[in-house]
Amino acid sequence: MPSKIAQIRLVSSHPQVYPPCDDSYALVDALLADRTKLLEHHPTICMEVGCGSGYVITSLALILGSESQNAYYFATDVNPDATKVTRETLEAHGVNAELLTTNIASGIEKRLSGMVDLMVINPPYVPTPEEEVGNSGISAAWAGGENGRSVIDKILPVADNLLSEKGWLYMLFLAENDPLQICLQMNKRGFGSKIVVQRSTEEETLHVIKFWRDPDIQIEENEGGSSGKTGPHRGWEFLMSQISRLSFRETRQ
Ligand SMILES: C[S@@+](CC[C@H](N)C(=O)[O-])C[C@H]1O[C@@H](n2cnc3c(N)ncnc32)[C@H](O)[C@@H]1O
Fold it and tell me: Cα torsion for 143, 147, 153, 155, to the nearest 10°?
């Protein structure tokens, strides 16, 4: 499989489109690391938000390959040049996908609500002044606002809405985005999480985290909520139980 990934040809590029970089490679490496699980998962609807050059969604389609003939691909980007480059990358590799130039998933969120089995996202995560967020050119590739979280915090509830009962989300974060806090936030929405890839370069530490709906987490939260404990003691217990889940819990996911 890695040989096929290495064969991804960047047939098209544009000065306003983010080319594949270390973060793109980390996300694809996470998908490759989970290839067997992904094939057993049999995702029908797969989606990338923020597709850029198309490297990640094309890699995903090649990873799933002919063993997932029923898979249907969607990709969005706020940058019209990115959807154009992604179209050319996908076509060069014989992959069909529905592409949309839109903000996150506007325009398809209603249609795909609760239907997406697999989402992959390398969002704009770099901490920047808030004014830099919200463009649709190349700066949209990195401008993440305060703590790099402005766009991320808008994407997460949309992902929750789109993901099916068996839906999995692979999303890339920078250490400065406070991934633990993001996991706790997703935890409250009923998602389990684990780090699939962690990588440090001279400039940054990247985490690819996988999220899935975990009914046990919801039960635990309800139990905690009905215990009547409030305030710092309850908060501390909750945080510690979640940290042990995130760091040490063996999961089948
Ligand atoms: C870090 S780049 C990743 C590109 C590509 N997925 C990759 O990994 O190489 C982030 C991408 O998200 C897009 N993006 C930023 N904000 C967005 C939004 N609100 N909705 C959709 N796409 C967005 C950017 O235009 C950019 O292409």
Answer: 30
Please state, in angstroms and rounded to a whole number, the distance separating the CA atoms of residues 26 and 211. 16
What are the tens digits of pLDDT across the range 3-50?
556 678 888 889 999 999 999 999 999 999 999 999 999 999 999 999
Cβ 246 under 6 angstroms from ligand 1: no
| CATH, residue 74 | 3.40.50.150
For the chain, what is the mean pLDDT? 88
Q: List pLDDT tens digits, range 90-135.
A: 999 999 999 999 999 999 999 999 999 999 999 999 999 999 999 9
The pTM is what? Answer: 0.88
Say how far residue 145 (Cα) sits from the centre of its chain: 18
CA of 114 to the centre of ligand 1 (A): 22
Q: How far does the centroid of ligand 1 lie from the alpha carbon of residue 229, in Å?
A: 41
CA nearest neighbour of 209 among 150, 155, 143, 130: 155
In terms of Cα–Cα distance, which of 109, 116, 91 is closest to 170?
Answer: 116
In a domain, 46, yes or no: yes
In a domain? residue 240: no
